User: Which sequence fits this backbone?
């Protein structure tokens, strides 16, 4: 970020032969401010007060200046101040005419039209403070200066990581030391990485004063991972190859699984006649050795070595047999074992009987459903066709007196029909009236009563 600096009113800090003239400059500034009003007209702008350069490469110190006054002469002066030396004259210019120091004329170059300086090539001995001063003469003389600190760095080379011991360690017993080394580099910062993430100090992680060495005490299974060393400085960064220390541990999480049967806890229920394959596994480095042990009559004996065991259930003489799987790590010296029981049942016959019972129940339900459907269909048909037969029968049985009585209600055919319908409604309920052209009306009742109207 560019920083603008005003002339002596802001911070005039030019120092020559280690004699500060800041106070004098401030008085001059106040005088010109009251007399000419041009004190703040000259400004110097630099990108940063500290710049890092790479040894052997050119370095450009950018300096811009501007002023708002009429000037007859513009003078630029560059000085160099080493860590333990007085300021040295490098070059100067008046109205873009450069006058270099003959000792440094091929190393330092002024880049017009501004006050920038080129250093080529950059060496370690060029590290220090560079002072630039600009004088502008018009109605009076105004001056501004600035100091830039230059740091020269050597790029880092790819680091190497060494592990001690290189053969591996046993958890909770051994320790691991990782050392990071590199060929070249200045102002180097070391950062240890684990699985691509920065590694910080912890209960079992200890770093050296410059972070170049990592000590893991004690080693545990959780320390397994990919370690690397990242080195950097202001001008470069490099990371080492990944290294994975060897840590021996286990066995942990021993368990037994089967490809068939029902497993409830440590009990495996299998069908008679089935061949079952059991698998024993545990987390360990190096891999465990496994042994299968059978218990019978309060005695145990090894029946097989290896992670797999095949059991034929129809050769088992008992209904339940106890087994045990044992895992052993020959490097850590630790072992673990798990017990389980195999129970042989007639699962196939029970399934068949259960299936037969299910089929019988289904047949009963189906028969009842069919009977109900047929009964409902028969009742519907009977109700649909039975009333027509009742009409003829009841019409023959109707008393003639009632018939005649119905006809006396009206003297004409139309009135007779109305009277007959009125008469039918009084006889019974509910009813349903039907008429047909050219025939006498009929009253049909749901209960089978039919009257001739």
Assistant:
């Amino acid at each position: 970020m560019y920083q603008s600096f005003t002339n002596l009113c802001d911070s005039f800090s030019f120092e020559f032969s280690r004699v500060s003239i800041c106070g004098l400059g401030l008085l001059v500034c106040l005088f010109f401010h009251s007399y000419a009003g041009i004190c703040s007209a000259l400004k110097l702008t630099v990108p940063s007060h500290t710049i890092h350069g790479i040894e052997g490469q050119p370095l450009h110190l950018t300096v811009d200046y501007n002023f708002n006054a009429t000037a007859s002469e513009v003078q630029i002066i560059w000085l160099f101040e080493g860590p333990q030396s007085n300021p040295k004259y490098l070059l100067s210019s008046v109205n873009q005419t450069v006058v270099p120091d003959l000792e440094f004329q091929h190393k330092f170059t002024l880049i017009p039209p501004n006050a920038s300086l080129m250093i080529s090539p950059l060496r370690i001995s060029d590290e220090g403070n560079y002072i630039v001063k600009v004088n502008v003469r018009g109605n009076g003389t105004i001056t501004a200066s600035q100091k830039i600190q230059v740091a020269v760095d050597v790029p880092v080379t790819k680091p190497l990581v060494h592990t001690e011991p290189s053969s591996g360690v046993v958890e909770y017993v051994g320790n691991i030391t990782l050392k990071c080394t590199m060929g070249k580099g200045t102002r180097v910062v070391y950062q240890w990485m684990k699985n691509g993430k920065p590694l910080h100090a912890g209960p079992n992680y200890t770093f050296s004063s410059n972070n170049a060495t990592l000590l893991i005490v004690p080693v545990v299974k959780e320390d397994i991972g990919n370690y690397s060393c990242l080195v950097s400085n202001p001008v470069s960064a490099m990371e080492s190859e990944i290294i994975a220390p060897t840590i021996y541990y286990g066995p942990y999480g021993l368990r037994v699984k089967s490809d068939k049967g029902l497993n409830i806890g440590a009990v495996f229920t299998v069908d008679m006649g089935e061949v079952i394959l059991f698998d024993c596994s545990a987390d360990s480095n190096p891999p465990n050795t496994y042994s299968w042990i059978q218990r019978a009559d309060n005695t145990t004996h090894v029946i097989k070595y290896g992670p797999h065991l095949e059991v034929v259930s129809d050769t088992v003489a008992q209904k339940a047999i106890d087994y045990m799987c044992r895992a052993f790590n020959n490097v850590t010296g630790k072992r673990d074992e798990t017990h389980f029981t195999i129970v042989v049942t007639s699962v196939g016959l029970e399934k068949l009987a259960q299936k037969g019972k299910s089929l019988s129940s289904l047949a009963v339900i189906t028969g009842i459903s069919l009977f109900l459907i047929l009964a409902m269909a028969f009742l519907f048909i009977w109700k649909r066709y039975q009333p027509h037969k009742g009409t003829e029968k009841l019409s023959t049985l109707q008393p003639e007196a009632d018939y005649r009585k119905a006809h006396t209600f009206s003297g004409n055919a139309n009135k007779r029909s109305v009277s007959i319908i009125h008469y039918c409604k009084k006889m019974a309920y509910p009813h349903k009236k039907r008429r047909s052209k050219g025939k006498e009306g009929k009253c049909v009742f749901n209960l089978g009563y039919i009257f001739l109207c």
